[in-house]
């Protein structure tokens, strides 16, 4: 036991030292002479506020009760820091680019600068932090009672809380610069970090080598249960504890404050990535030995939570006990100070200031000194938070229920994780999704873990805890929906974080983000692509520079505002005066302001100054959407007109063809009537002679009648042919194809025409092809075509010694029959029109035939999958070629 | 807007290695693998489960320190970013 005066004197001296450190560093910061303070080691040491008195005293207690389990609390942060590239670096980059002041600010900024989300996060943070602060007060009080023998715990706790409030107000609200950084405080907690590590190591060395004879001696006769705990040490609880601690190092408001907000240089993270785990390793190295030595040395029933203090005391090593007390004092105060700063920033920026601004400004542009208002609100918030902590401690009566509060707070802040990670890695997260996730997680956390932690004293009665509300067993807080048999902590984490993440993802995917949300999602997720952060809003109105300057001066302070505006004016190339209120200037100002009062408030203020002429992102996006739609419509229109043009061209072509066809048809009808008219005329005139004139001699009469007969036959033949060709071309005749021999077909055709050739004195040379050569064809029709060609060759051959040559060629899968004569053939021009109906070569006279033979022949051949063409020999003479598909052998 | 930050091959590798390190740490420290240390006996006077956890922990710290070194010697941290954004 030490005398009260000694303890108080040492404490006071220590506090004065901290004040001095903070004061000196603050002054050096303002004169920009940071020097060694701007080092990664200081940054790392400030992060060590993770190790609170809960670590300093409680870890030994936990090790004494549950063995190795306590290590998990330090493995999670180790994994997060070792993998800093993945998450921490992005958080720090976002925090710097968007002047983030707290975790509530980050989440609110990300989801469209939503003030309701900011309020929600702030409330959760406050509820989770208050008991945690109470826990620090409790351990401070207990350690003080142990070392000084003082009995009035409440008075002690009150003075401790008051002292910390004073320190926090003095150094936490000293300067409201654009970065919301507190170099003085950081330096002080770095000193405290060194003290607590040194103290714990000293006690550890003392326990291991003074009270025992090294590690071998300590663990010599220790049963395995003591080391690995009674239950399954590496089970679900181990996993959940690691997860929770990994989450806490990101989501605890105080950790966010030191890791993200107070970060001066991103490169410091790379040092912290190994130095902070090393610090944690140092803090935990002797926990297990101290616990075991304590269990061996101390009397049964001694509180293992205070072994760090009671071991040196029992050995009468007062200076070591005092060092241990200072270590515990450092752990508790640094946590309380930073947590209070972090939560009071949230409380002030997201709850107090918006209300105050609304009440004071009442619609007009900002009136009154916002800067003073902000400082007062911060200070009041700090007082309120510490007051709440003290009240909580007072009401809970310093009960043992507090001991579990560290983990309960971890689970509480773990509710931020889905919205936070979802916000910086997933563009799809929406404000509604985040709000639903946070609310569901928070409610489940309160129901399954926080309220039951009071053991049935607050809201939930012991009966409800045991049997569920109104006896509904499925709603038992610690066995929700019958999920029984789990550790209460594991149960609460599974339910609250699980439902939270699920709600966040599902609701986000079902809701559409607003314009500002979409913009913020992009700039947060792609923070590495846009250095400095994109301006969040573009003002079309004339936000007068004077007004903006006034606003900046009120919030940032005269000096900083002046240098900021000078800098921006210089950037615009102006030697003096205020910068033009360009988008860049306004965006920069909004970011700087958000460093002091949070993104949502800054956004609202700047917009208000801009005389409400701001063009919100919503409208901007709408405009963008609209022009996008117009571009699409124009594109569509262009496509349509191009299509129309194509159609018009096609129509013109079709029209040309129709005209040509029409002319052809007219010509055809003219030809046809001419062809019909000639025989009709002779029929009519001869029949008239026979009717009218008497005494026509019998011989004459017979001749006339035979002429009439011939002409009628010619008419009939003409009509038959017309009918035939129209059927062939229309495809309405199904020609039955057979396999026939080529030589036989040619032979029959030549036989049929033999009389004519003999009469005309034509020499026929036929090469009917090899025997067995067969084609797919209709024999009668093929004969018709051959006869037509041969008779033409006979009829229209003007040569004195007419000759006809028929030859057969096999041409792959086709067989050609060529019919040539020595009559000179046709010209190329004639060849083109020879197959038109009623067309005849020049050689022909009009005495016989009507010119349908060749068109019919061609139509027949085509209907039989073949063709009839005019070919030209190398010497320029022409011949007809019949082409037919060869029959498979 | 500023030009997109360059992608330095060295820092890209550093990021991949740091993420790999976390994966290794999780695998070694979480069940089921961590359970292999639950055997009786002691190393340097300490029970094997405790030694196992501490050794893995020190290994992680040493590896992280080794990964952080090239960054301190000159290379800017700004050289960023591709893969982990793409997943986001």
Walkthrough of the structure:
The complex is a heterodimer of chains A (889) and B (88). Chain A contains 34 helices and nine strands. Chain A starts with a helix and ends with a strand. Chain A is elongated and about 175 Å long. In chain A, helix 8 crosses helix 17 (318-361), helix 9 (183-211) crosses helix 15 (287-297) and helix 16 (307-314) runs antiparallel to helix 17 (318-361). Chain A folds into four domains: 4-101 and 127-382, no CATH class; 540-614, no CATH class; 619-730, Helix Hairpins (Orthogonal Bundle), CATH 1.10.287; 738-885, 2-Layer Sandwich (Heat Shock Protein 90). The longest helix of chain A is centred in the C-terminal third of the chain and has 76 residues, at 617-692. Chain A is mostly helical and 889 residues long. By secondary structure, chain B is mainly alpha-helical. Chain B has a domain at 14-69. Chain B has a two-stranded antiparallel sheet. In chain B, strand 1 and strand 2 form a beta hairpin. The two termini of chain B are 22 Å apart. The chains are: A mainly alpha (889), B mainly alpha (88). At the A-B interface, helix 4, helix 10, helix 11, helix 12 and helix 14 of A face helix 1, strand 2 and helix 2 of B.
Radius of gyration of chain B: 18 Å
Could you estimate the helical fraction of the residues of chain B in percent? 55-70%
Largest interface: A-B, 55 and 48 residues
Count of distinct strands of chain A: 9
Instruction: Give the overall average pLDDT of chain B.
Output: 72
Question: Cα-atom Rg of chain A, whole angstroms?
Answer: 52 Å
Largest sheet of chain A: 5 strands, mixed
Oligomerization status of the protein chains:
heterodimer
Order of helices and strands of chain B: HEEHH
Principal-axis shape of chain A: elongated
Largest sheet of chain B: 2 strands, antiparallel
